[in-house]
Design a protein that fits this description.
The chain has helices at residues 13-32, 36-39, 49-56, 58-68, 93-106, 110-124, 143-165, 173-190, 227-235, 240-245, and strands spanning 42-44, 47-48, 133-135, 140-142, 196-200, 204-208, 222-225, 249-252. The protein is of the alpha+beta class. A hairpin with a 4-residue loop joins strand 3 and strand 4. Helix 1 (13-32) crosses helix 8 (173-190) and helix 4 (58-68) crosses helix 6 (110-124). The radius of gyration is 19 Å and the shape is globular. The protein starts with 12 loop residues before the first helix and ends in a 14-residue tail after the last strand.
Length: 266
């Protein structure tokens, strides 16, 4: 009999919305100060830093645009539950890359783009409509769930921008917490069980992978890492072997090998 899956974690839509805006404001402050030389640096893949910075605005713009449209038909049940979202992103890369280049080319003033994006999000995305369905690239989702996915986009790309341009953009605590918890819970959902405990202090502890279940004392199989390393592992920025070699993750026990399960997002 397969292990039972746990009830999904609840997120407060108002707090998540505040966290999204706070993290976006941190990035905006940094982008406003980027020099032409920094904007021309390699950013992520084939994107320049300028294109990466432009792409960051889509994390909020997609939510704002979705709220401009009527609620999708099909009843109250979303097509994509929150924990399935990380696994639904793999096929979106080509379309996202093309849109990003077009956006960066059509918006020479990044400061103005960030100002407009924040204003539209603030106006169009409410803090009290968690169950309202919105259309996303993956399918319909609850607005409250979609806002949690925005924290993953913002945290991962803030980290990309920091590393590409030598910046030190801070992370809003609530945004980092939501990002970490979603990706940890998605791992537990993909590989349900209780033989391995994955710790990402101070935000998440999950048990996963079928096998003997730990009930008391120190678990025999433990993986521990920090929130940014976990985000990099889950999104494919860092491989399991690279993180182990750099001592960014500790893994004890014969079952404490997450390599076959990573990355979670394509």
């Amino acid at each position: 009999m397969p292990p039972a899956k746990k009830r999904p974690r609840a997120y407060d839509v108002a707090r998540t919305r505040t966290a999204v805006l706070a993290q976006f404001a941190h990035v905006h402050t940094a982008v406003r100060a980027l020099t032409p030389e920094q904007l021309a640096l390699p950013g992520l893949g084939e994107w320049s830093v300028r294109e990466l910075a432009a792409h960051l605005t889509t994390a909020l713009e997609r939510a704002a645009r979705a709220m401009e449209l009527p609620a999708p038909p099909g009843g109250p049940k979303p097509e994509i539950p929150l924990l399935e979202w990380p696994f639904s992103t793999a096929g979106n890369a080509p379309g996202i890359a093309g849109h990003t280049r077009e956006l960066a080319a059509s918006q020479p003033d990044l400061d103005a783009l960030y100002e407009e994006t924040a204003a539209r999000f603030t106006e169009l995305v409410p803090a009290d409509a968690a169950d309202r369905l919105v259309a996303t690239r993956a399918g319909t989702m609850r607005l409250g769930d979609f806002l949690v996915t925005r924290t993953v986009e913002l945290v991962a790309h803030t980290d990309d921008l920091n590393r590409a341009a030598g910046l030190d953009i801070p992370y809003d605590r609530q945004a980092l917490a939501a990002c970490t918890r979603l990706l940890a819970d998605a791992l537990a959902d993909r590989a349900p069980g209780g033989s391995v405990e994955v710790r990402v202090p101070p935000f998440a502890v999950v048990q996963c992978i079928g096998g003997p279940k730990h009930t008391r004392g120190t678990p025999p199989n433990v993986v521990e890492t920090d929130p940014l390393t976990w985000t990099r592992l889950a999104t494919g920025r860092t491989s399991w072997a690279e993180a182990l070699d750099a001592a960014q993750v500790s893994a004890s026990g014969e079952r404490a090998d997450l390599d076959p399960l990573l990355p979670l997002m394509g």
